[in-house]
């Protein structure tokens, strides 16, 4: 009736007939008719039957149905708010970079941690214990005290960061951390800075919150501090331990320059410690926050990338001057992160399971990185330039003899052959200086790396023939 398939005043089937057609008892149909009558959808006339009541059929009910999986007229309708309009403009859920097409044989997908059966079983036991002991109450808005204490110990041991539990805010991953930072520090229309290139999700969350983006380039020593704009944006978003996506490591001199810039200009630094744990040819460098003497760094870490994406937990180290504001923003967002997962994670860190997992994972990732580097140099050494790959779960391969159109043609051709490749271009605000591929290796089994590179070589031979000589 509401959809217009029954017109106003149209007679409904007799209850006996409808019960027989639907294979139901007549009592069931009678109850349904009585419910519709009570709701004002049906009028019963003694001796005549039941009819669709006036005013039930919607004025637009006769419009064509929207095909399943599409948004139909909603896409053309005005956004209900400025926030919704920005979200429509800056983010498309159907075009997230890095998604792998179903049916792909080999996928160099970035941002996916390594599958680990030992971790799966360890986490299942931790969750089971937590479910039995966690009280059925709302968690503290800052996070479970035991988890915040465990995070403080971990940061001291592994990242050189000395903080107290009251400085730590448990969040639902880096995505929520940047959203909270945007709400606390960036008014709509105000400037926020990102690296060029940068992680697309950081950029889009800032834009959705109304930030006017500024950028500064990255070179082999990380963010070029001398290129930061003045007047300075209030929020500076950086990935100093393993720049995403280039892999550059910010030098000690640049780190000191950045901290001095923030102090002089009153800016706040959002340090996303992306992949900071996984450094293969040397010890992991201490976080930028460990050098911060003026409390200008908002330090962010995520367990999703270190363990598995389904675990939507991370943490944010708050400068004391902003602690109340971040706590208020978190409370307004969700009252606090899931309690049972927090209990499980607190125990997992406290009993050493988390750091054992990191050591196992780093060893396995190094094997995969070495295998990928060897295969690329053996098959495509003259055709690719590999950026610094001493850390993280992906590497960047720049194409020597292709333009951007040729790179996209290669990606499309590889997809048809069952090989998932991802361009680096979506991570730039402006077109990158040359075409390149972002090649994740954490999610690819070791045995698949050589055949995947061999297939990449075939695709390049077919689509990007090497220049003569």
From TrEMBL:
MF (Gene Ontology): DNA binding; DNA-binding transcription factor activity; pyridoxal phosphate binding; transaminase activity
Keyword set, alphabetical order: Aminotransferase, DNA-binding, Pyridoxal phosphate, Transcription, Transcription regulation, Transferase
UniProt keyword annotation of DNA-binding present: yes
Residue spans crossing the bilayer: none
InterPro entries: Aminotransferase_I/II_large, HTH_trans_reg/aminotransferase, PyrdxlP-dep_Trfase, PyrdxlP-dep_Trfase_major, Tscrpt_reg_HTH_GntR, WH-like_DNA-bd_sf, WH_DNA-bd_sf
Gene3D superfamilies, sorted: Type I PLP-dependent aspartate aminotransferase-like (Major domain), Winged helix-like DNA-binding domain superfamily/Winged helix DNA-binding domain
Pfam families attached to this UniProt entry: Aminotran_1_2, GntR
Keyword field contains Iron: no
Lineage: superkingdom: Bacteria
HTH gntR-type domain: residues covered: 1-55
Family to which the UniProt record says this protein belongs: In the C-terminal section; belongs to the class-I pyridoxal-phosphate-dependent aminotransferase family.
Protein name: PLP-dependent aminotransferase family protein
